[in-house]
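Chain X:
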Amino acid sequence: MDRKTLAVFFALVLWLGMVVPTYAGSHKKSYLLRFAHGLPTTHDVAENFQFFKSLVETSSDHRLKVRLFPSGQLVNDKGLLQAVRTGAVDAGAVYAFYVEPIVPAFGLFTTPLVYDGTEQTIDAIEGRVGDLFFEALRKKGYVPLGWVVWPLETTGIESNAPVHVPLDLKGKVIRPLSPETVLYLQTYGQAQAAFVSGAELYTAIQRGTIDGSISSFDHAVTRKLSEVSPYFCVLPGVNVAHDIIFINRRVYRRLPPDLQQVLVEAARQTQRHSYAVGRKVVADMTIQANRVLKEVYYPTADDLALWHADLDRFFKAALKDNPEALALVMSERERMGKSK
């Protein structure tokens, strides 16, 4: 080996000695994600976020840590979307109905009774609708990772008096979860609507400020709403409260590619896990709701005909200023064979 070749060889060895440890150090660097959501830790659906945390940490050999902030500790549900976008919070889970103001297509999920079963919404988010939603969120500067699905079969209207048909709501003040639900309550039940935060809901019903809420068995049981509104009319699809797991774009891009993939895969598995959790919630919460509520009412076929009367006309009225969502609603109704 001549002197020039030897010099090149030693230079290469020196370079590798500098670069490889640097790469290894970067590869072993640990990261912390502050993950916020609005549910109490006792809530069945919140178990999905613990599952996500455990999966991320295990799959990354604990290089990526997730610290959960439940119950709106860092920011309330309504402000979470903006907090993640600005980086005030690294990641979180937000209800789909809070996304509609920035992505109008989400009106598909904020409009009551488009769907009446969980599997219908799963087909939607795993297909064209889910792709459309996530692409729209990316264009707004977010990195959506996956869904956490709530069962529709345990949703309905919880009230301080029995509700069986729409006009049983006449004169009552009900907490909605979207402008489209406000119109539904007014049109079908001649009811009034008042937006109240989840934290204030129990007290608002207790004091008579409102008479009830669009709710679920989970809320009746875990938030103890059954104590102040002990009557529940089951109306699957009156609310679609699926969560989206998402992360700040800058935070995501700073992660090494392998950790980005860990997040994507963990969210995908958490989404599938939420389907199983949802089925368990339906079984468990149905039993518990019947124990704590004075009445759990399942509308008869004649009752449902009143709740579902002329829905296509209602959708057109509710979404007249949101053509993107209306087109999706009508497309989904046609896909499910419900459009008339």
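Chain Y:
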Amino acid sequence: MPLFSGRGQGLDAIVHQSAPTTLELLLNDPPRFLAAMLYKYMRNKDHAPTGSVRCDDTIEHALVRVVCISDTHNVYLDSTQVPVGDILIHAGDITQSGTVSEVQDTLDWLGALPHRHKVVIAGNHDRCLAIPEECSALRWPQGVTYLSDAECQLYVGARTINIYGSPWTPKHGSGVFQYPRYPTNSAIQQWSSIPANTDILVTHGPPASHLDLGDYGCAALRDALWDAQPKLHVFGHIHAGRRVEVAKWDVAQRYYELVMARKSRWAGLFNMAFFLLRGLFVKGRKSIMVNAAVCGGVRDEDVRDAIVVDL
């Protein structure tokens, strides 16, 4: 099976696969491997898969604690695994089969958590949320906001937080909320409506080249992020991609994405390295990206804690 490539695999195989080894990545595609290592260690060496992350460009404001989870698949975390915070975000696949009873059980669990604000989107497993008649039968607990290609404003102290959520992922298999894979007009149009003032973007799937195991994210979403540049982007879907990453909207990131998309090879890698070094001395706008998948492993046997971000 070629690494960094999702062609020819079923969706479950992609979502549940283990991350390839370092040697496999190096031998399969040296420029992409080196680009990923440079990007990780020069931009993201301090960001572990779990724990608390602080955004460093909003320190003049009171911090807003955002607790991030995704892909719980009928797993209900206890209070030690979901820290208290101002906003709880669930980035989809709240169930395994998407039945009304499964969704309702998850909503009841979310409603019992102590967070004042809870924002939920669907994922490709959450079938009943794609059927209006079944969705209307659900009881939504107080404090739970469901977003489907929609935005909301949450008020935390003196802060106003603008959140946009969308459940859609590129077509693969028979799940719900899917669109034809990029490059297609529908993929581009899907992400053209992200509001410019979005503070937190919640999508089920990752953008291409960011916490997506190489080839499984959406290129149209990646390109749309250059316009939106949210402070925080929360997603899941690719379970083994779970991690926190800081994206800096500069030339180095452009070259990184070109190399990862195979649109440039060694020349792109050298340019990326040069601009990464220069970027050490230049400030710019950043986004925190969080793949918050809770379930992991080949059979979802691993259960990971929530990831906390302080904005």
